[in-house]
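Lecture notes, unit on protein representations.

Consider one protein chain, 404 amino acids long.
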Amino acid sequence: MRKIYMAGMSHKVAEIAIREKFYIPMDVKTEALKNSPFQELLILATCNRTEVYAASDSEIREEELVRYVCKLAGQNYEDFAKFFYFKSGDDVAHHVMNVCAGLDSVAVGEDQILHQIGRAYETAHQLNATGNTLNKLFQGAIHTTKRIKTETNLSKLSCNIPFLAMKQVLNTFDDLENRTVYIVGLGEMGSLMLKYVQENTTKIFASSKTFANAEKYSDVLTPVRYEDRYQVIGKCDVVILCSACAEPIVTKDEFAKVKGVTRLIIDLGSPRNAEASIGELPGVEYVCVDDLEKVVSENRRLRMIELDAAQKILKEGLDEFLQWMRMDEVSKQISLHAERMVNAANEESEKLLRSLPDLPEEDRKRIAMMYERFAKKMANDYLYKVKADNSPEDVQVFLKCLGA
């Protein structure tokens, strides 16, 4: 019987310093999918999780699969095994449905994970690394998630401050491709904000009170010394403030001296990083974290309603897959039993024909065909029809009575 397994790590069990060690380059992923040691394989790698899914006719032990993931990432099993989770059987299906629907994400209900899973599945499928089991699982998860997106408002009701801040930016500017963004502060809030900004523009400046911290991101942005912040503010369309400070780091008077294009200031600091009176300046829109918190509070209330509806849809998708899995196993048993019936009929016809050596060849073929047709009819009436009209559990009981 084919069974599904998975091993992985996510933002829930490992910090980013650990997760980034398990970034799996596309060439490594492609090679692994082409030369999989399992009957079926799919590799999901995002900034928040690295997960490997396998389907196999033989048991896969936890250590075996975790070692495989570590080998792909070029990391030592003994150093990182404690950061992995491992699931098998129905638990894998439940996990995939939750992950695909965004219910296991940092921003619950977010859309990006659906696209990431879609790409991971498409890659594995194109390389013939998936079979019936993983195809059915991931196709079902993607279909179920799309139902949740269209039948509920869950993905529209984020309670994640950086996510809502990014929505505010996109409400002001329809397209950020030719816009410049400046992030001040690269702690937990700032680094998450950077992730959202990266998805929309490559023109990014950033400052941190410790310049070395900003330099760590130099591959995706232009680091700016904290004390030079006013020199950059005027060059940017959007300024996002995420710094930890006791006093405002951007004042109305200093900001007014800057000649530039800044139209939107989003202040995610608490205490606030900027003087609110900045919003009184001509052409400047100022949004603080309290403005976003009001949206968060209302969204939390509405999400409880939408989450309940999403869970019901998720359960339908999960039940459908698990029913298919059980029926798939039943189908294999029925096919095997039907094959035995046909083989037994052929053996009996051969015995009969050996006792009739003078029978013409045409009659011999007719008798052999009649035996085989009778066996197939019996299989259809007493096996396939039983399968079609009953639950997998009842069919299993029936087959057990037949000695299947």
